[in-house]
């Protein structure tokens, strides 16, 4: 059958016998000994004996083209390639599994009943993040997948839910599929000039939120809001003191500590932007320093029209290198029941604290209360005066402002007559 095999090279047809002759010529050239094969059978024997690889060559225009038989790949290489592919597949599967089941946040103790607030208009991704944050489920992506498989996500309702930490995906999906009871709305008012601990008690009294939880959160939460309000990066001790804007708010009875804090911060930001602070003022003071000045004006002035005068005294004393020596900075360090004291003792003025402006130069390191809009306006636009002193002299809260120490001594005499020693 071999003699009948045909080989084609670009239009030429050569029979097996002609190919055999060409192979014989190649073998004759490379062989070290032995007679030239004469027949095809002898050629095959010669190939086998010399372990030569037949090389098929064409004549004519393609005479230089060499045609080689295909060589199968080594089994070892095939195994290596198979192993590489398998490793890649396993890596992909593992990464996908890890993404689904891993917990991206620190674990929360299971079995606790917590209130979960789903905001109006929240999508499934936002709901998933809320559930992870509250410790109900471990992974937001897994929740989204399971919710969609069960037909959820399109019928979850906004509102307040009582869920159990660690209860898992199916329990959360089932709970969120039930329309929550409408929450009662409560209107609360937070007055100006309160410290964080006082704000906490006011909110607790009106809304029923834990005052301890509110105070602890408000005194450490500044880093959590820096992305939204960059000026909080300079908050002293990470406290939100000064930025919890005093106002009247409507909350539902199921509101959380963060709900209240976020509303107050948003309101402060709204008021601050409305002040349109001049660039020169921001070059002289940071936002935290301006809020600190506002808090001093809030605590030192009783009348709104005197707040710009107080801030002018602050500017003038700082420019002169004088210590502020404001009673309000010491009262900030005293218990709540002493915040209304008109007089401080010598011992009070020696309290060791960076807030005490009787022993430290410059402004205190942060606000001493949460000031009103009037005080914020006074801080960014102080009056232009030469006053260096002021003293409470009127029962209506009015004060006497003085340029010299002698004038101030006379004002103090009047204050003692009106209010006593």
> What shape does the CA trace take?
elongated
The unreliable regions are: 1-17, 29-35, 51-72, 92-106
Helix content: 40-55%
Head-to-tail CA distance between termini: 132 Å
H/E series, N to C? Answer: EEHHEEHEHHEHEHHEHHHHHHHEEH
Total domain modules: 4
Overall mean pLDDT:
81
Strand tally is: 10
Q: What structural class do you assign from the helix and strand content?
A: mainly alpha
Radius of gyration: 43 Å
Can you list the strand order of the major beta sheet?
1-2
How much strand? Answer: 5-15%
For the biggest sheet, the summary is: 2 strands, antiparallel
* SS field, number of helical segments: 16
Characterization of this structure:
This protein has 421 residues and is mainly alpha-helical. It has 4 domains: 2-67, no CATH class; 113-176, 2-Layer Sandwich (Dna Ligase, domain 1); 185-273, Dna Ligase, domain 1; 288-419, no CATH class. The protein is 44% helix and 10% strand. The chain contains 16 helices and 10 strands. The strands form 5 sheets. A two-stranded antiparallel sheet has the order 1-2. A two-stranded antiparallel sheet has the order 3-4. A hairpin with a 6-residue loop joins strand 9 and strand 10. The longest helix is centred in the N-terminal third of the chain and has 27 residues, at 75-101. The protein is elongated, with a radius of gyration of 43 Å. The protein starts with 5 loop residues before the first strand and ends with a helix. The relative contact order is 0.07. The model is unreliable at 1-17, 29-35, 51-72 and 92-106 (pLDDT under 50).
